[in-house]
Amino acid sequence: MSVRFAVLGAGRIGQVHARAIHGDREASLVAVADAMAPAADALATEYGAQVRTIDAIASADDIDAVVICTPTDMHADLIEQFAHAGKAIFCEKPIDLDVARVRACLATVESTQATLMVAFQRRFDPDFMALKERIEAGVIGDVEMVVLTSRDPAPPPIDYIKRSGGIFRDMAIHDLDVARWLLGEPVATVQAAASVMVDPAIGDAGDFDTANVIMTTASGRQATINNSRRAGYGYDQRIEVFGSKGMVSALNTHESRTVVATRDGYTQPPLQDFFMSRYERAYANEIAAFVQCVKHGAIANPSGNDGLQALILADASLQSIKEQRVIHVDCD
Amino acid sequence: MSVRFAVLGAGRIGQVHARAIHGDREASLVAVADAMAPAADALATEYGAQVRTIDAIASADDIDAVVICTPTDMHADLIEQFAHAGKAIFCEKPIDLDVARVRACLATVESTQATLMVAFQRRFDPDFMALKERIEAGVIGDVEMVVLTSRDPAPPPIDYIKRSGGIFRDMAIHDLDVARWLLGEPVATVQAAASVMVDPAIGDAGDFDTANVIMTTASGRQATINNSRRAGYGYDQRIEVFGSKGMVSALNTHESRTVVATRDGYTQPPLQDFFMSRYERAYANEIAAFVQCVKHGAIANPSGNDGLQALILADASLQSIKEQRVIHVDCD
Amino acid sequence: MSVRFAVLGAGRIGQVHARAIHGDREASLVAVADAMAPAADALATEYGAQVRTIDAIASADDIDAVVICTPTDMHADLIEQFAHAGKAIFCEKPIDLDVARVRACLATVESTQATLMVAFQRRFDPDFMALKERIEAGVIGDVEMVVLTSRDPAPPPIDYIKRSGGIFRDMAIHDLDVARWLLGEPVATVQAAASVMVDPAIGDAGDFDTANVIMTTASGRQATINNSRRAGYGYDQRIEVFGSKGMVSALNTHESRTVVATRDGYTQPPLQDFFMSRYERAYANEIAAFVQCVKHGAIANPSGNDGLQALILADASLQSIKEQRVIHVDCD
Amino acid sequence: MSVRFAVLGAGRIGQVHARAIHGDREASLVAVADAMAPAADALATEYGAQVRTIDAIASADDIDAVVICTPTDMHADLIEQFAHAGKAIFCEKPIDLDVARVRACLATVESTQATLMVAFQRRFDPDFMALKERIEAGVIGDVEMVVLTSRDPAPPPIDYIKRSGGIFRDMAIHDLDVARWLLGEPVATVQAAASVMVDPAIGDAGDFDTANVIMTTASGRQATINNSRRAGYGYDQRIEVFGSKGMVSALNTHESRTVVATRDGYTQPPLQDFFMSRYERAYANEIAAFVQCVKHGAIANPSGNDGLQALILADASLQSIKEQRVIHVDCD
To answer: pTM score, two decimals?
Structure first.
C-alpha cells in the first residue's frame, strides 16, 4: 500500500518534497494546497495531483500524511490541526521560532499520539549516513570532538533574513541538530561568537552572517560549528568527528569529479552551490524514511523533540553572544 | 508530447532503461517484450506497462520508439525489423559481433531513414561530459594523448565470456568509443597486448582478461586503454586527456565521500562496484538525449556508425595481438 | 661572513637547531653548552664544535649569536644575560610562563637593543608560507575566519605536562601565534572550552588535553583553534583561512605520497607523527631567517613581543574557562 | 670512516651529487675534475675540495670512489679507467648509447671486480620506495600491470636532443628501469608508438617527443609507459602498480600542499617542475646507498647490468616503431 500524501505549500521546498514523494514507490502525491492558486495548480499538474484547501485535506479520507512547507509562522497551528485530524505529519524546520510555542505544539502531538517527523534532511545524506555508520561501528573509538563547517554559497534576501529568526535559528539549527546526532550525549553548555562580515544590511536587520559555536557535554565532549552566509566557492558542508582512535570526515560535493591541470595548478570545480541539488538524495531518503515510519508505525526520527532541542541550542547561542558568557542548557 | 516506448528484453539492462524512461518527464513506458514471460510481467507491472510480443510492438500505433536489450545475436535483426516499422531505435551495444553484419544492418537503417542510437552510455556520464566540455573550451589546448583506465570489479560468468565476442568487443569497446569521442581525429593505427592473469578459465575460453591498447591518429595523437576484468577495489573508470596546455582528468566514484583516519592511515571507501549504480545518471541522460532526438528529429549520437567504428577498432586490437604487429585501420 | 653560533641546551630541540645551523651556508656552530656533560659532548662532537660554559660563551669573541634551548625557567635569565653580552638571541618559546617576567625581560632586550627572535617555527613552514603568500596576494579577499586544527600524535609524559604551563601555554601557544600571524588584526576577545578526554592523569595534573578556542577582532574577524593531545592518525596540523572571495587551506603531510586501493578502500599512509620531521624544513628556514636578521640588522620576526602576545592569549584562554565567559584582551 | 669522493664533471648533475656527498655523514668530497676550469673551481670551492685532473684522481691514494657526471660519450672509458684504478664507481646513466660498448665496458668491470652503480635515482625516491615496499609486503597480491606516467615540464634544447640518443635512450630509460624494478619478471616483448606533437624541431632532429610503450613478461604481466617532453603543469611522475588484490600508486609532488577555493574552483599548485628539486631526496638516498655499498662491499644496485637492460629495452622500443611490430627481447 502506498502512503497517500498532501503537500501544504507549493514553494521551493514543497516542490522538492513533491518530487521525492513522486519518486518513491511506496508513496503517492494526492493533493496540494497553497494560498497562491497558480503555485498550487502548477505543482499539482506536474504530478497529477489535485488542488485542495487545507481544511479539505484535513478531513479527506484519501490522505494519510501531510508535508508542511508553509511559512514558519503557520507550522505549529498546522501540526496541531493535522494531529487532531489523525494524519501523519512531516514538517519543515523549525516548528516555531518560539520555544514555548513549540512545547505547546508538541504537547498536542503527544496527547493525540500523532506521528511527527521534523525535516532535518542532513541526517539522510548518504555521505553523512556513511560517516555515522563508521562511528557506530567503533572505527574512531569514543567520540571526543565534532567539527562542523557549514557555509552557504550566498546570503538569502534581506526580507527572508528579517523573518528567519536569525542565523542561529535559521541556518545553524541544521548544524546544531547534526551535532546532537553525532555527539552521542546531551549538550550541557553553549558559547558562541558572531559578527557581520558579509553584508552590513544583515547587521542592520539585527542579525549576523558569520558565527562560531562551541558546545560541550557533561563528560567533556566538544562540538564546534563554523558558519558563514557566503562562501565564494559554493555550498560548503563538511563534518569531521574526532575520537579516541581516529577521525572520520565527510567531504564536500563538487560540481563534477574532474581536475584540470595547467600552469595555473590543479583545479577541481567549485562545490555544488544549491541546497536542493546538494541534498537531492537526502530529501529522497528522508521522505522514504517517513514513509516507512507511517507504514510501520515506527517512531519518527528526527522527532518533534529533536526540533525543540535544536531550537533551544540556537537560542542559547544567541544568549551567549548577548551575555558574553557560557550558557548552561538542560537538553536531552 | 511524451515519447512512447517499448523495451525489448526485460533483463538487467532492460530494467535500467525502463527506470530511466519512467523517470523522464517526456517519455513513457507503454510495453515490454521478453521471451521469458515472468520477466516481462514483472517489469511491465513495476511501471504500469503492458506485456506484448515483439511483432505486436512493431505494428502498434501507440509506440514511438524501442529500446533493444535482447541477446546480442538478435540486435541486427530487430534493428532492421523496427527500421522498416518506422520506429525510432535505441540499441544496446554491440549491433553485432560481425562487422559485415553491422554494415548490412546500417545500410537498412540508412535506406529506411530510421533513427538509430547505439548505447554507449559513458558519453552521457556527467563527469565525462564535464571533461569533454573542458577540452572543447580549449583549456588543455590541442589533444595529444587520451589515457583510459577501465577495469571491471569482477569477471562475468564464463558462459557470458564465451558469447561475448571477447574482451575487446565486449569490454574495451566502450573505451574504444570513448577514445574516438575524445581524440578528435580518426584512429589510424592500433596495437595491443593481452594476457590471462585473472582466471585461466577465461584463457581456456579463448579470451583474455588483461589488456593494453595503443592507438594513433594520422597527426600523431595517441590513445591508450588499460583493461582488466578484475579490480579488487571496485569499478575503476578513469579518463585522462593530455594536451598542449595541460591535462584534464575524470576521477573515480567512491561508495561515499568519507575518509577514516586511524593509525592505519587515511581510508576512503572502495569504488562503486556495479556499472548500474556507477552509471545511473549516465543511463538517465542517455535516454533523455534519445528522447530529444526522437522528438526533434535530431541525428542520433552516438550513431550506428559509432557502433561500427568501435567494433572495427576492437577487431583490429585482436588482430594486432594475433599478428604481433601494428594494424592500420580505415576509420572515421 | 658566517654567523657564529653557540647552542645552549643539547637536548632534542637543541639538536634540531644545531643541525639547521650546520646545514646553513652562512652559519657555523662554534660552541655547545649543557649542564649534562655527555649531552654537550655528543652534540659538539657531531658538528665539530667546542663544549663551553654559558659564561664562557657570553664573554667569547668568536660567538655572534646564541640559540637558547634550555628548560623554560632559564629562558628569561639567559636572554637578559646575552642581551647584556651583546649577542643576538634566538630563544625557544616560551620566554617565560609568567607574563610579568616576560615583560621585564623584553624591557631589558629593548634597553640593550639586542636582537631577539622567538622560535615559532610554524611561520617558516613552506606550506604555511605559501598559504600566507596567497592571502597577501588577495586571492581570498579580506580575511574573515582563521580555522586551526592542531593535534599532537600523543601526549607528552606527565612530568612534562606538570612543568609545561598547561595546554594553552605549551601547545596552543603555537596556534595562537599562527592565528595572530594570519588574522591581520589584533585579537580583542578570547573564549575557550577544555576537557580531559585522553588521559585522567592529565586532569589530575590540573591540565586539559582537549580544547577549543574562539577569538575575535574588533572588526569581527574570528579565529578558532581545535586542539587535542592525541590524534590516532599522526600529527594533525591544518590551517584554513576563509575570506570574502574564497578560502585557502594548508593540508597535512603524510608519511608518503602513496595510495593503496583494495577491497578495504583507498588508503594513504597516516600523517608524519613527529614534530621534528614534520617541521624539518621550517626549522631550517627559521634559522636561515635569523641568520639574515643577524647579518643585516633586520628586525627579528617573530619578535619577543610576538612571544608575549601569544602568552597573553594563552592566559586569556585559561581565564575564560575558569570564569566561563568571554575575556577581552588588549593585544597588538 | 668516511668514503672519500671525487666528482668528475662539475655541471648541473655533478653539483647535485656533490651536495649529496657533502650532506652525507659518511662521505666527504675530496676532489673535483672538469675540463672547464671555472666550473671545477666553483664546485671545489663551495665544498672545500681540491681541483684535480682525472688522471691525478685515478692515481690518488686519498680517493675511494668517483662519481662520473661527464658527457655520455666519456662514461664507458672513464668506467674502465677507474675500474682498473681500483676505485668504486658511481656513473650517471647511460653507460653508453651503444649496447655493444656497454657490454664491453661491463666485461672490464667484471674482470676487475670493480664496484659500479648506475644512477637510476628514482629507485631511491621515498615515495617510490614506499610503493615498492607495499608491493613486497603483498598488499596488492601478484603484480599484473605497471603503469608509468612520466612527462617532463619542458623539452631540453635541441642541441641536447641531438646528442641524447633520442627519447627512449634519454628519457624513457628511467621508466624502463622502473618498470623492470617493479615488474618482478624479465621483460619479454616491447612495442611502442611515438610522434612529434611538441616541437617540429625535435622531429627534424630525428627524434620524438610523445611516446607510449607496452611491455610484457613471459607470464603475461604488462607494463606501460606514457611519455611527453612537455607537460604544462609541471614534472609529472606517477607510478601505478595493479595486482591481483588491488593497486598501489605513487602520487605527484606539488609545489606546496595548499588549496585555494574560489568561484573558479579548488586549486592546488602545479607540480614541482625541476628534476633536481623533485628528486632531491632521491639523490641524497642514492649517494647514501652507494656509500654503504662501498663501505660494506655490498653489490651495487642498480648495477651496470641494470643500465644495460634498460638500454636494450630503449633500443627495442625504437626498433618496434621502425618495424611497426612487437619486438621480442632476451632480457633478465
So the answer is: 0.96
